[in-house]
C-alpha cells in the first residue's frame, strides 16, 4: 500500500514457548502444585497481563501451555493468545489456540470468541501487507467457525476483498480542511496539507469513492471565523483541523453536528464529535510507565515543567500508576522551564525513588541531566521521557546520564519522509505525518460510508479503530483518542548514544482485554 509498506507478522510456535510439567488437579482457576508449573499462578499472570506487563506474562506462561491437565492447558493458552495479540502477533496467538476446543463452558466460549477475533486481526494485517490471498484464507476460516464475533468487522473486511459493484452512495465525500496558510504556523499547515493531498491520491488510486477537500485558512482568529462560516455552507461531512487547541472548541461549536479531527495534543479540548489525530502526552507517559513497571520499577517521582504540558504528563503518570497498586508516586516537583538553574526543584525530590519522569524538551535535557548528576540522582535511577525526547540534543555527550532512559514517541515513517522530501524539495514538518495518516483514515471512512450509508461520526467510533502508517488510531465516544506509539530506549553506541526501538508502534490496535481474564472451566448450571 505505497508508503504504508510491508507489515511483517512474526510467529512463535507453541512448542517454542512450552515445557511439559507434571499433571496436577483441575480447578476453576488453575494453580501450580509445588511450583511444578512455575513460580507464578495463572491468576497472578492474568493480573500482570491486565496491567500491561505483556512480556512478563508471556515468559511466565511458558511452563503452562503444554500442561497435561486439560483445564490448565486451556486457560494458559487462552492467556498466552491474548498476550501475543497485545504484542501485535495475532497469527502466533492463533497457533497457540490450536487444539483448544470450543465447548459449553465460559472458558470454551471465550476461546471461540477469541479465535474469531484473531482471524479478523490476521486478515487486517494481511490486507495491510498487500496479501489478499492470505487475507481471504483467514476470512474463510472465520466463516467456518461456530462462534463468529464482530460480524460488522468481518463484513467490512469481506468488502475490501470483494467490493460489490453498487454502493449505497455514489456522491463524493466532502471533507473540510482548516489549517494556517500564513504566519508563524504556515509551514506546518502547508506540509500537513501536502501530505494529506498526496496521501489521498495514493489511497484512492484504485478507483475508490472520490473525495473532495474544501481547504480554508486558519492563520488568524478572524480568518478562522470566516472559514468556519464558509465551511458550514459547503456541506462537508468531516473537518480536518485545526492545529491549535485554542481553536478546537469554538470551531466545533460553530460546526454543530459535523465531526472534527484536530491535530491538537490537548486532551482537555476533546469531547463528543471532537477528536484528535495527534499523540497525547498522557498516553506517551503511560506507555513508558508500563515499560518501567514491567522492568520491576515501583517507586516513581516526577520533575515537571510548569504549564499545561507538564500537568498533562503528570495526569498520565497518575493514571498509569492507578492501574498498578504495588507502585507509588513518592514525590512531585515543578520547575520553571525558562530558568537554567532548577537545583532547588531537584533537591526537593529527595531520595527514595527508583524512577523519575522527566517530560522536558530535547534542548533542556542536557542541562537537566547535568544537574541530576550534580545532585547524585543519575545513578540507579530509571529516567522516563516523552516524545519531546526524540531530539538529537538528548544524545549529546553532556546528556550521557540519559543512557538507559525510556520514552514513547510516534513512529517515524522513513518512507514517508523520503517521499515527501523528493516530491516537495524539503523535509516534512513533524506534523506532516499526521496529514498522511488523515488521508489513509479518510479514504477508509469514504469507502465504508459508501458501503453502509452510515454517518461519518458513527463510523469513526468502530471498536477496532483504524490501521494507520503512523500507528493505529482508535476513537472513543468521549472524544479521547488512542494512538499506537513506539517505545524507545537510549543506548550506548560506538559514537556515543543512540535511539533504539524496544517496541515498534502497532499499526493495528490490539484486541481489548476481556473481563474476566480467566473465565470458569465449569459450565453454568441452572437449578
Could you characterize what this model shows?
The protein has 527 residues and is α/β, with parallel strands linked by helices. It starts with 41 loop residues before the first helix and ends in a 24-residue tail after the last strand. The strands form three sheets. The chain has a seven-stranded mixed sheet. It is built from 17 helices and 14 strands. It is 40% helix and 13% strand. The relative contact order is 0.12. The N terminus is likely disordered. Helix 5 packs parallel to helix 7. It is globular.
Termini separation comes to 56 Å
Q: Which class of secondary structure composition applies to the elements?
A: alpha/beta
The order of strands across the largest sheet is 7-6-8-9-10-13-14
Percent of residues in helices: 25-40%
Shape: globular
Low-confidence stretches: 1-38
**Count of distinct strands:** 14
**Rg result:** 25 Å
Largest sheet: 7 strands, mixed
How large is the count of helical segments?
17
- On the 0-100 scale, what is the average pLDDT? 88
Determine the oligomeric state from the structure: single chain
Q: What fraction of residues sit in β-strands? A: 5-15%
Amino acid at each position: 500500500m505505497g508508503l504504508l509498506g510491508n507489515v511483517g507478522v512474526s510467529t512463535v510456535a507453541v512448542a517454542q514457548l512450552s515445557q511439559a510439567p507434571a499433571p496436577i488437579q483441575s480447578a476453576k482457576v488453575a494453580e501450580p502444585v509445588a511450583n511444578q508449573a512455575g513460580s507464578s499462578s495463572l491468576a497472578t499472570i492474568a493480573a500482570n497481563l491486565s496491567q500491561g506487563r505483556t512480556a512478563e506474562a508471556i515468559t511466565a506462561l511458558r511452563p503452562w501451555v503444554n500442561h497435561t491437565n486439560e483445564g490448565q492447558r486451556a486457560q494458559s493458552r487462552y492467556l498466552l493468545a491474548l498476550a501475543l495479540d497485545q504484542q501485535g502477533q495475532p497469527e502466533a496467538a492463533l497457533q497457540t489456540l490450536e487444539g483448544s476446543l470450543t465447548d459449553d463452558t465460559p472458558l470454551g466460549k471465550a476461546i471461540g470468541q477469541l479465535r474469531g477475533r484473531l482471524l479478523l486481526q490476521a486478515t487486517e494485517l494481511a490486507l495491510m501487507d498487500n496479501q489478499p490471498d492470505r487475507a481471504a484464507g483467514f476470512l474463510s476460516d472465520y466463516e467456518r467457525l461456530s462462534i463468529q464475533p464482530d460480524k460488522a468487522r468481518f463484513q467490512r473486511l469481506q468488502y475490501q476483498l470483494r467490493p460489490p459493484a453498487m454502493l449505497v452512495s455514489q456522491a463524493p465525500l466532502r471533507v473540510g480542511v482548516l489549517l494556517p496558510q500564513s504566519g508563524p504556523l504556515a509551514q506546518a499547515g502547508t506540509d500537513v496539507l501536502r501530505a494529506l493531498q498526496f496521501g489521498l491520491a495514493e489511497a484512492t488510486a484504485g478507483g475508490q469513492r472520490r473525495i473532495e477537500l474544501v481547504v480554508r485558512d486558519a492563520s488568524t482568529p478572524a480568518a478562522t471565523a470566516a472559514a468556519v462560516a464558509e465551511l458550514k455552507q459547503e456541506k462537508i461531512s468531516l473537518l480536518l483541523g485545526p492545529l491549535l487547541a485554542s481553536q478546537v472548541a469554538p470551531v466545533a461549536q460553530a460546526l454543530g453536528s459535523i465531526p472534527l479531527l484536530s491535530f491538537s495534543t490537548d486532551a482537555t479540548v476533546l469531547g463528543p464529535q471532537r477528536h484528535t489525530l495527534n499523540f497525547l502526552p498522557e498516553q506517551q507517559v503511560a506507555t513508558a510507565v508500563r515499560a518501567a513497571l514491567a522492568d520491576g520499577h515501583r517507586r516513581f517521582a516526577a520533575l515537571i515543567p510548569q504549564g499545561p504540558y507538564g500537568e498533562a504528563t503528570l495526569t498520565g503518570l497518575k493514571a498509569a500508576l492507578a492501574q498498578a497498586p504495588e507502585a507509588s508516586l513518592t514525590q512531585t516537583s515543578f520547575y520553571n522551564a525558562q530558568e537554567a538553574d532548577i537545583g532547588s526543584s531537584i533537591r526537593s525530590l529527595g531520595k527514595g525513588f527508583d524512577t523519575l519522569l522527566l517530560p522536558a524538551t530535547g534542548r533542556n535535557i542536557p542541562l537537566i541531566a547535568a544537574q541530576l548528576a550534580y545532585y547524585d540522582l543519575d545513578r540507579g535511577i530509571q529516567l522516563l521521557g516523552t516524545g519531546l525526547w526524540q531530539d538529537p540534543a538528548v544524545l549529546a555527550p553532556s546528556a550521557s546520564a540519559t543512557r538507559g532512559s525510556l520514552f514513547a514517541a510516534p513512529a517515524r515513517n522513513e518512507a514517508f519522509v523520503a517521499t515527501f522530501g523528493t516530491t516537495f524539495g524539503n523535509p516534512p514538518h513533524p506534523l506532516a505525518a499526521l496529514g498522511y495518516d488523515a488521508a489513509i483514515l479518510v479514504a477508509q471512512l469514504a469507502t465504508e460510508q459508501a458501503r453502509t450509508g452510515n454517518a461519518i461520526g458513527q463510523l469513526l467510533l468502530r471498536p477496532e479503530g483504524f490501521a494507520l502508517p503512523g500507528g493505529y488510531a482508535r476513537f472513543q465516544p468521549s472524544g479521547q483518542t488512542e494512538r499506537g506509539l513506539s517505545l524507545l530506549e537510549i543506548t550506548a553506541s560506538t559514537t556515543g548514544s543512540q535511539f533504539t526501538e524496544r517496541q515498534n508502534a502497532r499499526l493495528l490496535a490490539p484486541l481489548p482485554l476481556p473481563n474476566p481474564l480467566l473465565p470458569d472451566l465449569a459450565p453454568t448450571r441452572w437449578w
